[in-house]
Amino acid sequence: FLRKVYSLLTMQLLATVTVIILFTFVQDIKDFVHRKLSLEKISAVMYFYFEKEKCSCKDPISQELVFKFSGFLRKVYSLLTMQLLATVTVIILFTFVQDIKDFVHRNDWLVLVSLFATIGLLIGLHVKRLDHPVNLYLLAGFTMVQAFTLGIVVTFYSQMVVLQAIFLTFLVVAGLTSFTFQSKRDFSVMGSGLFAALIILIGVSIIQIFFNNSLLDLVISFAGAIVFSLFIIFDTHMIMQKVSAEEYILATITLYMDILNLFMYILRILEALNRQ
């Protein structure tokens, strides 16, 4: 029963994201649905709501900055949506297709290939992040490698746990993003504390490898989920306030990796609770 529920729910979410992408990129649909109110105007209104003390609507220069900012946000979240859609599709294939599971489990070397490919693509993205369209090709390659790596990981988890983790991650990310967009707090002060927490988390995770304690693993998983939830808030705020409009590739990768790490920790939490 639960498998049917979460399978149907996952397909619903995939269908919804697909429709959102169509409404975002197909101009005829945009014109038909919204002839008088463009996405730029909506984004501008949102921006003025958050930044009304920093610019004047009557100033042409400020208006130009607002439209540039709205275009930046549109690029970031459009690319991020496509990344997540591709990643979820790969995860579902690796979770439900037994032949793929068997192939992955028989070929351990695939993990090393994906690791070196990730490093190479990250270096390439750092060097070519402002070089269009090379940066988009590299981003697509990076997304597929990360989706493949995550697909390998989920083959060791039950189907129900994977579907639950996808659903919970979607809810958490949507809630945190909405909260950050609406909040007027300065989350940039969280930066140093979050990076310190990340270093501690990595150190404790390395120690856990040698002790293999189930309770410690559960504590680390909860801590990791909290840390990367806060990173989503922090990075979303930085994208809105600090990141240059030309750095949309960097912004997209940052949010994408935050979400993937959050998914991994939620997956570990659900698996641990399921065992108990």
Automatic annotation (TrEMBL):
Membrane topology listed for this record: Multi-pass membrane protein
One GO cellular component term: Golgi apparatus
Transmembrane found in the keyword field: yes
Assigned keywords, A-Z: Membrane, Transmembrane, Transmembrane helix
Main location: membrane
Compartments in which it is found: Membrane
Transmembrane segment boundaries: 6-26, 76-97, 109-127, 134-156, 162-181, 193-212, 218-236, 248-267
Name assigned to this protein: Protein lifeguard 4-like
